[in-house]
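Hi V.,

You were right to ask for the full record rather than a summary. Here it is.
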Amino acid sequence: MSDLSTLGPFVDRYVREAEATLTAPYLREAMERIVPILLRARREDRTVFFLGNGGSASTASHFVTDIAKVAGGTEPRGPGHRFRCLALNDNVPGLTAWANDTDYAQVFVGPLRALAQKGDVVFAISGSGNSPNVLEAVRAARTMGLATIGLTGIGGGKLKDLVDVPVVVPSNSMQHTEDVHLIVCHMLTAYLRDEQPSGPR
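Predicted structure:
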C-alpha cells in the first residue's frame, strides 16, 4: 500500500489556501461591478460572449450553461427575461478553421467581429491573464464598444489592465485561481436566479 502520510496535511493546506483566496474584499467589489453589466445585458437583450483556453474554456462553457438555463428561470419568456449568451470556444470546427487559416491568437477575434454588436459583453477567462487569443479578443471587443470582464489570477497578467472589470484571484496557484473562477460562476448564477426579478425594469 502506498504511503499516504502526507495526504491529510496536504488536504488541510489546500483548503486553507483556498479559503484565503475568498476572504479578500476584491470578490465582493468585483461582483458589485459585474452584476449591473449582466442585468443590463439581460434587460436590453444583449449577447454575452464567454471565452477561454483549456480549463478556462471549460469554465466558459459551464458559465454559459448556468447563466442561460438557470439564471433566466424555467419559463420561456421574451427579451429582458433570459440571457442571450454563448461560449466562443464551443465551436470546435470554427475554432480550428480560424486557427488553421489565420493564427491561433485570432480564433476568438473572427467570430466576435462576425457576431457581436455594440453594447454586448465579453467575459474573458485566463488563469495567467496572458493568453494571446484572449487578449486579442478583448482588444477587439474594446474597439467594437463592448463591455469587458476578465477573470484571471497569478497577478492578473496583461488582461487585468485591458478589461473594464478585472477579477484577479490573489493566488499564484492555477488550481486555486480556477477554483475561484467556478465559484464566481456559481455565485453570479445563484444571485441572478434567486435575488433578482427576471423581468425588465
